[in-house]
Amino acid sequence: MARGTAAIRAQASPGFYAAACPDLGAYRSGLNGGVELYSALVRLRRGTLAGGHGGRQSTAERQTTDTKGGDMNGVTGKMLVADLSQRKTAVETLPDQAYRLFLGGFGLGAHLAWTRIPKGADPLGEKNVVAMVPGLLTGDGISTASKTTFTFRSPLTGTLARSVAGAWAGIALRKAGWDALLLTGASKAPVVLIIEDGQARFEDASDLWGLDLRATAKALRTRFGEGYRTVAIGPAGENLSLISTIECDGRQAGRGGGGAVLGAKKLKAILVKGTGPVPVHDRGRMKEIVSHWQGIIRDHPVTKADMSYGSGEFLDWMNRESGTFPSKNWQWGYFKSAYARAADGKIELDPYYWAPKYVARNVACPTCTKPCGQLFQVKEGKYAGTEVDGPEYETLYSLGGAPEVASIEAVAKANEICDVLGLDTISAGVTVAWAMEAVERGLLSKVDLDGIDLKFGDADAMLAVLEKMGRREGKTGALLADGTKAACDRLGKGASFAIHIKGMELPAYDIRGSKGVALAFAVSFRGGDHLTGGVYGLEYGGSWWKLTADRHSLRGKGFEVRLLEDLMAVYDTLGVCKFTRHIYFLEGLPEMVAAQTGLALTAAELLTVGERAYNLARAFNVREGFSRKDDHLPPRVMELPIPDGPSAGDRVSAEELQALLDDYYEARGWSRDGVPLKGLLAALDLPDVADAIGASGP
After folding, report:
1. How far apart are CA 69 and CA 609, in angstroms?
2. Which H or E run includes 460?
3. Where are the domains of the chain?
4. Which fold has domain 78-273?
5. Neighbour-count burial for 538-569, b at 16+ CB within 10 Å, e otherwise
6. What residues pair up with 389 in beta bridges, in sequence order?
7. 78-273 shares its CATH topology with 295-499
8. 204 phi/psi in degrees, rounded to 5
9. pTM for the full model?
10. Considering the chain, what is the average pLDDT of its residues?
């Protein structure tokens, strides 16, 4: 594929988005703006939209020029550093330039990971750090602006990890006077970190070690009283499971093994209480913006569906219409056995069936006015007493379709076990499905699994395995507690049907049926992941875009993925839920940032912030030895076509993957090996990063 350096320089320039859509942000709210943005950028990609890039200011210079009132407002400028080795805390002042370039959330977290984690640091060693960074808009009252990002080097993948939760603790951290919390070192004994209005201290937590997350929450309330917001780990994190989660008041920062990183630091929990206001540059204007957008969200047609059925509403479309709901460890493209048994064509996993029967009420992240959470309760029968927030779409796949478990009550129970023990439901369920196939192939037996007769469709066997995984108990826990890749390595077999990328298990989209989603999964900096790019909305259609890309075509996929990665990075940086990208898009976000900080950033400049954060994440991985060779797909995706259903015959061949990578690297302004070019990093105000990874020209 031809790679003209002039084209690369043009696409790499921080003026790229401004040239593509100079009036970005002036579009009408909602869906049409998304279509117009995508269409304009596609026209630029094809050379039919004029736009010069030469002689532009650096992003930092442009932001400084456009800033209202000089200094950036709406932040405290302070970061709390908690050294677990010394059990001491300190305050650091973050430079104004760091805020201008990275803003907060994922952007600032990536910056802290790059600057504070040394090359080659053991993910479970004391030199790894965890940066807990609320989004720039988190806690200022904007609907769904409640996200907090945890960044660290992942013990599961070895890459940079970004794990996000809708967290009261992140809001409390801002109210207590901090823009970020940096966890360094490692304690020799279990501890709790207490943060309260500008003060912080450590307390012994030996009595809490070993408790599950529900018991932990109760014990913390008994010991420290009410009013604290909580971050905690369960037994899975304590036992260093590489697929363990960080819980934030019942919500999970689920992917990448963050629970194990905190477990290695012997940090059982963080309690945060803040009584001050979240700093806002123009509070009056912010109130107007909040009121305006809440009305739009309330009246939006998607809101009712989200509140009624949650993310699970996607299941029927993915199963029956597109045939890309991977089941039986990706042997099928839809839940074939469940539909075969369904007399009326409906299956239990479909929320149109279970929501009216089991959901007691909605569950929302902080400040959310379109809650997609569902309080699921089982009141009688075999699984009576089960109560869980969910199950979400991904969990319906990982604990339902992938292991071929068709009972919604059993899936909910499995979801509860994972939440209470602190396991990532996606990785845990996909690992169980891999083990089921290993048994089916004769590679594992009951002897290897502590007497558990593990078979596809056996819900009780799945539950028993999950319990052992979460506590790293017996032969089962020793084999499976660290996910699929580690299990393959320990067994010495099974890699051909292991469903992971860079060590992270894949979520609920059969990428054999979507070239764009396959590319997004392959290049995601944290491993197999749907949230880094969010391409599924465009490839499968739906309410995000009123525009659907041809999911079977190779054309334009590199550009498509690059654009959406940068957009999703903006959402994680600002702390706004990605389920509003069809509502706020890039009209609402700039006015929110202006009210919050005084920075008059255009939507194009916000996209450049996302581009910068994403390139820094890639540079982190390059520094740790990752390259094109690691942007792979599972063998099953490339070798086994979807056998039947609406996407029968679909797969992504090795040749197609290489063509997709070429296209993506060109769109990104990277070398053929997937390394960001020196000129790109300089234009993004990251020249030191270019030097550190030995980036080449131009």
Report:
1. 21
2. helix 459-471
3. 5-56+507-633+653-693, 78-273, 295-499
4. Aldehyde Ferredoxin Oxidoreductase;  A, domain 1 (3.60.9)
5. bbbbbbbbebebebeebebbbbbbbbbbbbbb
6. 375
7. no
8. -65, 145
9. 0.92
10. 88
CATH number among 3.30.360.10, 3.40.630.10, 1.10.599.10, 2.30.30.40, domain 5-56+507-633+653-693: 1.10.599.10
More confident residue, 51 or 233: 233
Burial track 127-164 (b if 16+ CB lie within 10 A, e otherwise): ebbbbbbbbbbbbbbbbbbbbbbbbbbbbbbbbbbbbb
Q: How far apart are CA 124 and CA 153, in angstroms?
A: 9
Give 49's pLDDT tier (boundaries 50, 70, 90): very low
Mean pLDDT, range 338-355, rounded to an integer: 86
In this structure, are strands 359-363 and 373-377 parallel, antiparallel, or unpaired?
Answer: antiparallel
pLDDT, position 342: 81
The identity of residue 485, as a single letter, is: K
Coil, strand, or helix at residue 204?
strand
Please, are residues 148 and 138 in contact by the beta-carbon 8 Å criterion? Answer: yes
Q: What is the 3-state secondary structure (H, E, C) of 102-168?
A: HCCHHHHHHHHHHHHCCCCCCCCCCCCCEEEEECCCCCCCCCCECEEEEEEECCCCCCEEEEEEECH
Q: What is the CATH number of domain 295-499?
A: 1.10.569.10
* Helical (H) or strand (E) element with 85: none
Instruction: Report the distance separating Cα 151 and Cα 613, nearest Å.
Output: 12
Burial class for 283, CB neighbours closer than 10 Å (0-12, 13-18, 19+): middle
Three-class DSSP labels, 393-439 = HHHHHHHHHCCCCCCHHHHHHHHHHHHHHCECHHHHHHHHHHHHHHH
Distance CA 363, CA 403 (A): 27
pLDDT of residue 20: 53
